[in-house]
């Protein structure tokens, strides 16, 4: 079953091409991973909302280093913050490296070094075992086509793809009504819904920032 994956590992697999390159910019990818971590922890019952703040309600170790590291951060004294704050805080390179490193350890991808424009070094994550991703894609496609009911896991992944604006790119034209039903279904706890709402806002902010920076750079060189 595809659901042996954590939510962030599932999200990462879907947004990495077989040749190892991301299909979205780094900010969107990292924000999505941050939301995926919070969604995963909310589904496990590890964290929940207390008012507007995300708090740890069950500190039992998950066995996943990335998830357990985030639980430790959220559970630290004085760390009660909103979901949006945590998406911004967590959505950075160390989280990306941790999630992708987990996929390497699972034998699903490999880490490969390449040079952008023949000069700048970068890392790509080529596919090594496409089986789990194929199962995941099939499960999500069945849910989107109403051939099967969403599970909390598949619904969370669909919600994350929708919040980051990547659902249609990955699965083609989708029934927006069906997506809305999935997103508002009984599967989603208030904490998961809050994470998805805040993730969508965080991604919008990051996209606006990237667009503004690109526009400014273009204007400065014209």
What are the salient characteristics of this protein?
three-stranded antiparallel β-sheet; 10 helices; single chain; yeast vps74-n-term truncation variant fold; 5 strands; 59% helix
Low-confidence regions: none
* Average predicted confidence as pLDDT: 86
* Number of E strands: 5
So, CATH architecture? Orthogonal Bundle
Layout of secondary structure:
Elements: H1 7-14, H2 26-44, E1 47-50, E2 53-56, H3 65-75, E3 81-82, H4 83-90, H5 93-105, E4 112-116, E5 120-124, H6 131-144, H7 152-163, H8 167-171, H9 176-183, H10 190-221
Antiparallel strand pairs: 1-2, 2-3, 4-5
Structure report:
The chain is mainly alpha-helical. It has one domain (2-214): yeast vps74-n-term truncation variant fold (Orthogonal Bundle). The protein contains ten helices and five strands; from the N terminus they run H-H-E-E-H-E-H-H-E-E-H-H-H-H-H. It has helices spanning 7-14, 26-44, 65-75, 83-90, 93-105, 131-144, 152-163, 167-171, 176-183, 190-221; strands at 47-50, 53-56, 81-82, 112-116, 120-124. The protein has a three-stranded antiparallel beta sheet. Helix 1 (7-14) runs antiparallel to helix 2, helix 2 packs across helix 5 and helix 4 packs across helix 10. The radius of gyration is 17 Å and the shape is globular. The chain starts with 6 loop residues before the first helix and ends with a helix. The relative contact order is 0.18. The model has no long low-confidence stretch (mean pLDDT 86).
């Amino acid at each position: 079953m595809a659901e042996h994956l954590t939510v962030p590992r599932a999200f990462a697999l879907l947004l990495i091409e077989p040749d190892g390159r991301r299909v979205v910019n780094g900010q969107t990818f990292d924000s999505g991973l941050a939301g995926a971590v919070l969604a995963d922890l909310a589904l496990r019952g590890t964290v929940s909302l207390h008012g507007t703040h995300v708090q740890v309600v069950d500190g039992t170790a998950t066995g996943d280093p990335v998830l357990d590291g985030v639980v430790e951060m959220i559970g630290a004294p004085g760390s009660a913050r909103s979901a949006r704050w945590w998406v911004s805080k967590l959505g950075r390179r160390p989280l990306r490296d941790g999630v992708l490193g987990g996929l390497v350890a699972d034998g699903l991808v490999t880490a490969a070094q390449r040079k952008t424009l023949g000069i700048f070094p970068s890392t790509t994550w080529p596919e090594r075992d496409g089986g789990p991703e194929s199962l995941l894609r099939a499960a999500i496609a069945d849910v989107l086509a109403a051939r099967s009911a969403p599970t909390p896991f598949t619904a969370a992944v669909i919600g994350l793809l929708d919040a980051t604006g990547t659902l249609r790119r990955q699965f083609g034209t989708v029934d927006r009504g069906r997506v809305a039903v999935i997103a508002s279904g009984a599967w989603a706890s208030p904490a998961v819904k809050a994470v998805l709402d805040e993730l969508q806002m965080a991604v919008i902010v990051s996209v606006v920032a990237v667009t503004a920076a690109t526009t400014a750079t273009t204007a400065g060189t014209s």
